[in-house]
Amino acid sequence: MKAIISIGIWLGGGLLTILLFFVVFVLNILLFPFDKKKKITHAQCFWWSDAVIGLNPFWDVKTSGLENIDHKRTYVVISNHQSMADIAVLYQTKMQFKWVAKASLFKVPFIGWCLGLIKHIKLTRGDFASIKEIYRQASQWLRKDMSVLFFPEGTRSSSNQMGEFQNGAFKLAIKEKKPILPVCLIGTHDAIPKGSWIFKGKVSVRLIVLPAVETDKFGPGDFGLLKDTVYAKIKEALLS
Description:
By secondary structure, the chain is an alpha/beta fold. The chain is 42% helix and 15% strand. It contains 7 helices and 7 strands, in the order ααββαβαβαβαββα.
């Protein structure tokens, strides 16, 4: 029975993602002169997230702290990273933002193509020029009042243990004088089966949005302190 349900989940999720791509593709053409920031096309991912999560009877996704999001403000969003399921879950914030995502993800059929159409930021790991370019693009988006979301661990963790944070996002937040919005993901590392395509049991997933960390009192040399402050807040939520 679990195999049959799993087939339905993968098939349904695939069809929803294909539908999302065609909706985004058509709207991208129709709204090209009017939606320069791709806000309308980005918002299509909200119903996709609701549908993908609602389709999966093995996922129990709960959100908290959404009241900490001021949709009139621009943030450097910092989240821990556990699996591909993070994409669907983070859209539950219903925020406008640009992902910083590895280049290989943009090549994934349909979902990756959507990332390109919506103008998210592509990172090529190990390429210094690419790293400089993502921060240039991120700065531009922040100055246009568009939040930018980073996974500062640089790669997915295999458990609820976080990896070390990299410095770049914190330097950027101080430079652009934007608050950091910490987001904690719990349980997404178990949301997608490892080594199998069969969903084997109920998985509890939590999305916790923490209060923003203001950066106006941090100087250029304080990025390490800011990084440690945000890391500690997410780690505390992760262990709660």
